[in-house]
Amino acid sequence: MSKLEIVGLTKAYGKKIANDHINISLNCGVYGLLGPNGAGKTTLMRQIVALTKPTSGEILYDGQKIEVLDTKYRNLLGYLPQDFDAYGNFKILEFLEYMAALKDVKDSKAKINELMSLVGLQEVKGRKIAKLSGGMKRRVGIAQALLNNPKILVLDEPTAGLDPQERNRFRNMISNLGKEAIVILSTHIISDVEQVAKEIIMIKNGRVRIKASGKELLGKMAGKVFGIRVKDEEQIAEINEKYKIVNVQRGADYTNVRFISHSKPEIVDVWKEEPMFEDVYIEYFER
Ligand SMILES: Nc1ncnc2c1ncn2[C@@H]1O[C@H](COP(=O)(O)OP(=O)(O)O)[C@@H](O)[C@H]1O
Ligand SMILES: [Mg+2]
């Protein structure tokens, strides 16, 4: 089974450390790269697809440096850039034919047909890319990334601009692709990856905070999530001082606060809550 190893990967832009000693190892399956804006997701992905060179550290594919493998490595890649938006004057079909020629795809007609059905673009294949909705543009971007049957598929914010239905469809598609390839997709929305990802890599300020399965992440929150019915706004402020508030639920005649505490809270009348992914997000990304 193929393996991608990222070793001590560091990328600095002047004084800004965008990736800070990242060490992760990936094999077949879907990985969710999760982090807030500016966390360093795009920077990491651009290095994985060999568009940007690391300041230090290295990336190995099956034990060999990717810059040594060079074209052999590049031929294995599929990439959807975060800012995929060019080629507005091309019609969808023309664009995919053009990309297939660039990538030297064998039997490209059949492949393009297959991909347009997969992402649901068959009906609009004659439309100009500039005229498409954001979600449709992303789908064209996903299709072009898949043209060469990549062994390493890197999707930078693939669900940006997709509506809920498109998101669902996308998740199903991705989990299939993960059976045969290393799939890395970035997002700042945890629900994009909580079900579909084999592991979630949580990144903040250029560092990997944790890499674990969804189940493991929820497990780590067990016994740390609490609820309380508060009397007034002052009490919310007090809780906010000491603990991480996940959300405040305001009903007609009550207000409940959900919060995280690593030890038993020193407040009376709290109850334990079952961990959810929202708690995981707050735990690793807030403050
Ligand atoms: N080409 C660049 N020049 C200078 N700073 C950059 C450049 N690209 C990214 N950065 C900075 O690096 C950090 C990480 O950015 P990025 O990788 O785009 O994060 P994300 O994709 O998680 O939003 C940000 O602070 C960003 O401003
Ligand atoms: Mg980004």
Automatic annotation (TrEMBL):
Pfam families: ABC_tran. GO terms for molecular function: ATP binding. Keywords: ATP-binding, Nucleotide-binding, Transport. The keyword Transport applies. Residues 4-230 form the ABC transporter domain. Gene3D superfamilies: P-loop containing nucleotide triphosphate hydrolases. Coiled coil: none annotated. Transmembrane segments: none annotated. InterPro entries: AAA+_ATPase, ABC_transporter-like_ATP-bd, ABC_transporter-like_CS, P-loop_NTPase. It comes from the Bacteria. SUPFAM superfamilies: P-loop containing nucleoside triphosphate hydrolases. Belongs to the ABC transporter superfamily. This is ABC transporter ATP-binding protein. It comes from Aequitasia blattaphilus.
